[in-house]
């Protein structure tokens, strides 16, 4: 994990020995469980360190995270970016949400093995979770590395965010058209694009784009729509 230490130090994150041990154990669990279920196509240690761990932590370059923010990671999959953020910033209160129960079992095993507090894994579709009063508009920050266009992803994630909080998706670069359509959806959902940051992971040519969406008003009650609708009929694309 020396490689991880050196890379994230360049974005002003200094991991201690305990945190590096947690990342090492997380990697071991990921590879072990990946033999029997599909968690990730990326398993080489160097690749996991850069493409999963360092990439997840890159948000800290633009967002202050060393405080007790409540964070939900929607469509977390194998725990990215939520678990790396929790390891690096243990004060965060983290909810990991995924629609596949066997992935949630893996996440619970990681939480147990790494002995982390103030973190939970929830089995739910985003559309169902977003309508659940237990989770709706309860979080300071929603993040997601899920593969979906910005319009759909906003409908999945914005309902979880408190007014005044942020939704920050991890996106690829070159998103001009997607962002144009996404802004319409974001406006309907009570948000506003405040900033867009383009960056690379230190010592690599891997690009990442963060869209900072501020929640300006409560999301209208009709959103999120029923499961599958946000993907089939993205909000921004429906408007003239």
TrEMBL record:
What name does UniProt use for this protein? Ribosomal RNA small subunit methyltransferase G
Q: Does the keyword S-adenosyl-L-methionine apply?
A: yes
What keywords is this UniProt entry annotated with?
A: Cytoplasm, Methyltransferase, rRNA processing, S-adenosyl-L-methionine, Transferase
Q: What does this protein do?
A: Specifically methylates the N7 position of a guanine in 16S rRNA.
GO terms of biological process kind: methylation
Subcellular location, principal: cytoplasm
Q: Could you say which EC number(s) this protein's record lists?
A: 2.1.1.-
Q: Which GO terms describe its molecular function?
A: methyltransferase activity
Organism taxonomic ancestry: Bacteria, Bacillati, Bacillota, Clostridia, Lachnospirales
Q: What would be the name of the gene that encodes this protein?
A: rsmG
Q: Write out the annotated subcellular location.
A: Cytoplasm
Record's Gene3D superfamilies?
A: Vaccinia Virus protein VP39 (3.40.50.150)
The protein's matches in PANTHER family, at most eight in alphabetical order, are given as: S-ADENOSYL-L-METHIONINE-DEPENDENT METHYLTRANSFERASES SUPERFAMILY PROTEIN
UniProt binding sites for S-adenosyl-L-methionine: 75, 80, 126-127, 145
Family label: Belongs to the methyltransferase superfamily. RNA methyltransferase RsmG family.
Source species, domain of life: Bacteria
Organism, scientific name: Coprococcus ammoniilyticus
Look up keyword Repressor and say if it applies: no
**Which Pfam families does the record cross-reference, listed alphabetically?**
GidB
